[in-house]
Structures are given as structure tokens and as C-alpha cells.
Amino acid sequence: MAVYTEVTDEELAAFIAGYDVGDLLSYKGIAEGVENTNYVVHTTREPLILTLYEKRVARSDLPFFVGLMEHLAGKGVPCPVPRHDRKGETIGELAGRAAALVTFLEGFWIRRPKAEHCARVGEALARLHGAGADFTGKRTNALGPSGWQPLFDRFRDRANEISPGLEGVIADELAALLPAWPQNLPSGVIHADLFPDNVFFVGSELSGLIDFYFACNDAFAYDLAICLNAWCFEPDHAYNMTKGRALLKGYEQVRPLSAAERAAMPMLARGAALRFLLTRSYDWLNTPKNAVVSPHDPIDYLRRLRFHQSVGSIAGYIGEAP
Amino acid sequence: MAVYTEVTDEELAAFIAGYDVGDLLSYKGIAEGVENTNYVVHTTREPLILTLYEKRVARSDLPFFVGLMEHLAGKGVPCPVPRHDRKGETIGELAGRAAALVTFLEGFWIRRPKAEHCARVGEALARLHGAGADFTGKRTNALGPSGWQPLFDRFRDRANEISPGLEGVIADELAALLPAWPQNLPSGVIHADLFPDNVFFVGSELSGLIDFYFACNDAFAYDLAICLNAWCFEPDHAYNMTKGRALLKGYEQVRPLSAAERAAMPMLARGAALRFLLTRSYDWLNTPKNAVVSPHDPIDYLRRLRFHQSVGSIAGYIGEAP
To answer: What is the ipTM of this complex?
Structure first.
């Protein structure tokens, strides 16, 4: 949520001149995006978003991320469309950073989503999964199961500083999940971070999906399990079954889940909760106190994990027999 | 340069509905404005800037600031135009803050101004002075000469922490300036903070003047002296006479200076340098190290002050006989 890199008017005007997007009219750094620096840019032709990629995004991953947005937009997914420069490139260089210029999407994220928003997100996620089917790029999920133990090892000796007993909870969960993790589920390109602040609405219509910088190849149902965690819990961390049902039914209106995916849902939801518990715990312990961006409280995901541990089947999420 | 106050989508949609400006399409917090929180708002009708007034702006001053923008815009000065709500008000309440919705001005501020930019700023400042003549609001300049000694007293015991000997320099300058400060110069509404980041250009055309939150009633020539300090020194703090000449000639194309104003210019420029030396010194000593907004280096204005002390007449700024 910060402007990490300042861009001067002269270097931006020169950068913009490399694209056929009209002349620069204005640009303002926006408090959006935790990893990167973003500007709203107005030209004589259209509003755009300029992203400068900061060090947490691996440069070698950029062709996957930017290429994926272009691919998905071409299939009708409402996501930012990268503009090509006059040489045909979508990734340029500005102020010492890799940079991309993408279309501006109207809409704003919903601070308190209702069930109707969850239904729209489910539908959009399923369309994204379908639209990615013929995308040729590949990216391993660095935050998938094989990454959890190494990440835990980087902070386990301090885990109990966050909450007494947290080290044991995570160790037990890893021991339970890793050997039993569902294999061979339908897979493809997933968003992997479709939280409410990455989904724009205008009125009740979903107008945009943004922030593809965790996208990767993994199980579709795992992406849905991430959304269950991200969209279907109340501020007091209680699960809201009406929202969960809306999310899953919205998804299944576009892409019905297989029996194996339905059976795996509680396990996938536990894994998704563990993934955010791990990354938030690491960030909590390693973010300087005076950082511009405050870390999220990891305990929110400990509470979600405990809920998922109590769920025996997908019926526990939708209130019906599976 | 920060978003101090977060606004939820629901409260913003309700706020916007109180105005006849179309429906809310998007809003993004921008890293602009040191004192207040600003959002770029797109509606179905137009782009707008939403400002939430934080505690450093006195609520009782808002009718002056917002009324002045409306008055000046009505006279053709390119400044933000406040929108009226359905009850006719220009100042509302949002997220616990006083709030105003104003038009979005295209353009961007020039990081390295050239003489041609200085000429445009001079012209625009003179037009602003003329356009304010029949504005009925009044506001004392809290950072004018009568405010300097009390402000200095709040940090003088720590002034030498900034630079050895700074306490003595400021005390001597106050002793020299206060008894000799020019009186009875032509006065009216001045901007009082027309730094490069408050002036937008599109190409070489000046497209906007913003940030009227130091505006007050004071001598016109003092406003010009502030611009001399803000626009006509190089990054190494050397005075650039070409820029100074362009600024003053630009101003005089619209409003010629009187003999008294020309004679007072070195004294006014010293006062303007002292005013920013004082406020920057106070902020430097009182800003927490982990603050979102870093304070400006006061020493830049100590250097300017020393230059102005060496100037005997307006010829020292323009390179010609007065």
C-alpha cells in the first residue's frame, strides 16, 4: 500500500512515448498493491495503471504474469490488459524497475462482501480457470505444499512469540496434511490470491480481477479453497455458510466440481489456511515496526484452520449433503 | 504523501449519492498532499478528487479555502472546482473527517522546472492575485512575521541539533527582519505555498494550481518572494537568475510591481526563506523517525536565506538595474 519508487515527469513522458497510448496528461501514485508501486496514468486517449515491479517479484516471473493477464483478457476475463510498446514488448524498464502499462479497470473492492458478491466471485474464478486452459506459460506454486515446511523452518523457533503453542499447531498440521495432500485433481492456471481487495465491483456486477502476481499452475479446487478462506468468514472469524454456499454454487454454475474435488475440499481449505498462516507469520516476525505496510495478523488464519479441521466433508461448507 | 484515513466503499457510495455527480465507479487513495488524505474518484460523469481534511487543517478555515477555490475558478484561474452537494454545501463529513469533492485537474508537476515554467507560474500568480480581489473571505497569515518568533521559541533550544550555530542565525535574522518588515504593500489573497508540486503543467502550458491550504491575506509581493525561493534555485541551492527573471517578468506581464514592492523584494525573499526555514526546522525536530512522510531538510532554506542576505536590490534577482 505504498509508492516505493518515485518516477519523474521526464522519465515517465519518455516511457509513455514508447507506447501508442496518447500523450501523458497526469499521473498519481496510488496506495494500492503491497508488493509493487502503482500509478494511475491519464493520457489523451485512456486511463492506465503503471506498475513498477519491486524486488519481491522475480523478474523471471514477469512474462508469465503479464502474459497471463493478456491471455485471460483476450478470453473475456475482466482483468487488466497489458499495452504493448512500439517494439511489441509488454515489459519495459522505468526508474530502475521493470514496468508494465495496463488498462485501468473501473470498480472498487467490497469491504464487507455479501453472499451475492461471493456468488459472482465463484463464477469469475471458474471462468478464469477455463480461460487459462490453453495458456502455455507455466509457473510452479512456490507457496504450495512443497514450500510450506521450508517456510516454517525459517521462523519456527520464534512461532510461539505470535501465539503460545503455534509452533506445535503448525508442526502437527504439516504432519497431517503433507502425506495426505490430494493428488491428481484437475489443474491449470490459478489466481492463488483472489482476496476481496483483488476483485472490483460496480454495483453488484463484478468488473475486474487484479493482482496476478501469485498466479501459478495448481489444482483448481485449491484456488476455490483459498476463496473460501478469503471471502466466507466474518470479521469475528466465524464461517458464514450462506456465503460459502454462494461461492461454491457460483463456481459450479460455470465449472462443476468432480467427486474427487468435492471430497478434497476440507483438506484443501486446511492447506489454504495453513499457507496464509505461514506467510503471515513469517511477515509478522520479519516486518520492521516502522514499515510503511503493516503485516496482517496471522491469528486470523489460525482460527480459520481450526474451523476447517472440524469440517468432515463439503457439506460442512454448504449445509447440504455432498 | 499518504492515505491517513481509509474510506469504505459503503460510506463513500453514500457520500457520493449526496451529490449530483453521477454514480461511483472507482476510487483510489493517492500519495499526494502532506496534510490531508486524497482519493482519485471516478464517477459515471467525471473524475474528481476527494479530500479528507486531517487534524492539521483547522476546520474553521475550510470555508475560506474551499470558497476561495470556487471564487478563483469562477474567475478563470485553473484550480479545482468544489462540487456542491444536493443541499448546496461544499464541505461535508466522511469517515469522521470534513471532506470536499473537487474537480480533477489534468497535468503533472515539473520535477526540474525550466525558465519557461517559471514564466508561466509568474503569470498565473499575478492572475490569482487579481482574481482574488473581490473575494470576501479573510484569513490571517499564521506563518507571517508575527508568527515567526513564537514558532522559533518552540524549538530554539534544539535548533543547533540541526546545524551548529543555527539558533544564532535565526535569532539575528528575526532581529533584522521584524523591525524592518515592509508595511502597506499592495495586499490581498495570496497562495503562500506555490511550490512546484502545487502547479500542474500539460506540455509547456500551466493546467492547474492546487493546494490552497496555506492561502491567506498578505502582501502580493511576498507571495512572489515565496515563488522565487521555491522555483529559482538549483538542486545545489545556487540561485538561477534566468529563472528568477522569467518568474518576475511573467508576473509583471499581468501585474506590474510598484516601486515599493520592487524595493522590498530582497527583504521579502529573506522573510520567505526564514518562514520555510522555521517550519522545516520545527518539523525536522518533531517528526517521529518512523513517520510516513519524511520532513524536508531545513538547511536548503538556510542556504537560500544566506543568498538573499547578499542581495542588495531587485537587480540581484533579475540581473538588470531596478
So the answer is: 0.88
